[in-house]
Amino acid sequence: MPAPEPDRVEPGAALSSKMSTLARRDTRPEIALRSELHRRGLRYRVQVTVPGNRRSSTDEELHAAGWDVVRVWEHELPEHAGDLVEDAYRQRVPSRSPTDPGGGHPQG
């Protein structure tokens, strides 16, 4: 079960200014998750910029575009986050078997 969502707090001007200067990519939690997924033999790349908000409409828009949404909070352990991502991946992509060299993907 995923960790509960943290309480939302309206940022003050000082915090908002500080947050605007922080890295939005290759953060310590992202690198830890990437390393965990790499250890499991999974690779990924960021292909779209996703808004940093948590609106349900964001999920709906991503689902409509064919994406699966997995929310991972920076305080979650990389192993747990890796389980969430791997589970979503395994549900979406069939396992490759010795009798199915295409991994369940259509040939052509």
UniProtKB/TrEMBL annotation:
<protein>
    <submittedName>
        <fullName>DNA mismatch endonuclease Vsr</fullName>
    </submittedName>
</protein>
<keyword id="KW-0255">Endonuclease</keyword>
<dbReference type="GO" id="GO:0004519">
    <property type="term" value="F:endonuclease activity"/>
</dbReference>
<feature type="region of interest" description="Disordered">
    <location>
        <begin position="1"/>
        <end position="27"/>
    </location>
</feature>
<feature type="compositionally biased region" description="Basic and acidic residues">
    <location>
        <begin position="1"/>
        <end position="10"/>
    </location>
</feature>
<feature type="region of interest" description="Disordered">
    <location>
        <begin position="89"/>
        <end position="108"/>
    </location>
</feature>
<keyword id="KW-0540">Nuclease</keyword>
<keyword id="KW-0378">Hydrolase</keyword>
<dbReference type="InterPro" id="IPR011335">
    <property type="entry name" value="Restrct_endonuc-II-like"/>
</dbReference>
